[in-house]
Amino acid sequence: MTEAVNQILNGLQLGLVYALIALGYTMVYGIIRLINFAHGDVFMVGAFVAFFSTSSWHLPFVVAVPLSMVICAVLGVVIERLAYRPLRYAARIAALISAIGVSLLLEYGSSLKWVFGPNYRVVPRPFNVTQWSFRGVQVSNIQVIVLLTVIVLLAALQYMVTRTRMGKAMRAVSFDHDAARLMGINVDAIISYTFALGSALAAAGGVLYSVAYPQINPFMGIMPGLKAFTAAVLGGIGSIPGAMLGALIMGEVDVLSAAYLSSRLRDVFSFSILILVLLTKPSGLLGKSGPEKV
Amino acid sequence: MRIPRIVAVVAIALLIPALALSGCSSGDKKTLRVGLITPLTGDVKTFGESTKNGVLLAMEQAGVTLDKGGKIGNVPVKLFIQDDRNDATEGVNVATKLISETKVQAIIGSVTSKVTIAVSNVTNPAKVVQITSTATNPKVTVEDGKRKPYTFRACFIDPFQGTVGAKFALDTLKARTAAMLYDQSNDYTVGLAQYFKEAFEKGGGKVVFEASYGTNDTDFSAVLTKIAGFKPDILYLPDYYQKVSLIGSQARAKGIKSVFMGGDGWDSSELDFKAMDGGYFTNHYSPDDPRAEVKSFVAAYKAKYGAVPDALATLAYDATNMLITAVKQTQSNDPEKIREYLANGTFSAVSGTIKNDANGNPIKSAAILQIKDGKQQFVASVNP
User: Fold this and answer.
1) Interchain CB distance below 8 Å, B225 and A118
2) Which of A270, B33, B162, B291 is surrounded by the fewest CB atoms within 10 Å?
3) Tens-digit pLDDT profile for residues A15-65
4) What are the structural domains, with CATH classification, of chain A?
5) Which of A 190-219 lie inside 8 A of B, CB atoms?
6) 3-state secondary structure A155-203
7) Domains of chain B, earliest start first
8) Which residues of chain A does B48 touch, with a Cβ-Cβ cutoff of 8 Å?
9) Structure pTM?
């Protein structure tokens, strides 16, 4: 019984990291109807920036995290400006292919020797790991830090989206670009802002991931990116609470299928969910269904 | 400026045969072309670098350099290096390129079993001699009960390594229970786990938990939580350094106190020495071995590269010297003659005397090393 609780906690830890990535997918989709395949690679860049700022520049961890979030926010804006904005009014498939191109560019670009290099790196833990045990239920300080960071970031995001003028503008743009523009909203600026927010969250996810699973490489973003994408679809792409719910479910499915079925089958189960959702309820758990605007 | 047409025609006429012959120019009939396939980038790049260092040192001592080539006895030798990124498909690609374009007669490599097995299925049909320094899986030389006659190696094989590890766990560490984690898609780790388990259970121990994972897995929380419940004496992790480092640090974070054990895949300066502290692994050699061959090799390697050679560098040096000896003795670049010599000869090497059995597997001793205080320490030498 306690083992089951421990496994659920493992799944929660993974799900929370997926949530940070899934939010970026879902926000970007919500606002420009684009599946940003480069998002998982922004997550990777976030992990690397934090790694270099702690190990090479000797910055404290609490500085490294915001720094990596800022750098990735800028990266997100630059990607949108260069790769997606010129294609905004082209066929949707063009932007999607551009996104795949950006993804490959980030993966292989950062594999170059003078960027991050192609090697696997061990990430030193910024703090010593301690474990607390309550009647057999094990909780580590890593899990607590992941949980607290994610809660703080989500609360901040929720505040930004629902209580600020920028958030209001974001929601307006996601509703209808043209109407928003007529109301005097600078749509381009809002889209950039959305990319910045999403990328900053992905960076935070990357840092937490590399603390929990302390090894990084230029291709580390692919699998978590796909899982988070699945989570966003499961929750209803475009919906922020949906992305979180989907991510928590994905984390649990991932860990519990590894624990009680087979670790070889974890990806099979995770991605079967994607197919099942697309077949039975394409709008996802919390997504809005309704006729597609043409 | 206009180039006179006649000059252009002559230039092109001269260029065409030059291009056509650049693959094998006419004076090259007697040249032995040697290809080295090794992972210089990717997840095991320190293996690849050490291997390259070992090969180049042996070649240099025989009078052959990478950029200029050289001669072994009367046989001119040229050396070509290719990176396989520790990817089997890439290994086959570069091997095919070396054989069909560069026209090599011998290949040294690759480093890991999964790539070497794939490459051996290219070299054997092409009748190109292949010597791997460190691919320890039995399938490298024998697959489906058939000996691949052109493939040789300088290392012992996994059954021996797994058995030695299990014996050490039982007899010296007095372990009774063990858990194992291995990569389902990697012949090397599957093989080691299987032979460790056989020997460990035969000796009275019990493997209480085993699980496999995928090559790209990073989250091991689920299986490690289960292992923590069993409290095994040993956690056997027969994978390469980067993966065992990742598993090791997560295992300690889950409160697992078991002694870590593994195989020669741990031998890297990029192992997470802090996470793996106290762990033991089986290896091909130790630089602390007092034999004279070891001492002079370690000194030469230190002088050239400024570092103590690991087992990868040592076996690469040994594998290259097997080829050099065979060429010296046969005075030929004919792969058939070299193959015959390799199959029957005895080679005195840094990692111990190498004499191949009928399956092309050397019979030699193993070393047990411990990770302690940020370094590898020699514990014992075990004979077959």
Assistant:
1) no
2) B291
3) 999 999 999 999 998 888 888 999 999 999 999 999 999 988 889 988 999
4) 2-116+138-280 (1.10.3470)
5) 209, 212-215, 217
6) HHHHHHHHHCHHHHHHHHHHHCHHHHHHCCCCHHHHHHHHHHHHHHHHH
7) 26-156+289-352 (3.40.50.2300), 159-283+369-382 (3.40.50.2300)
8) none
9) 0.80
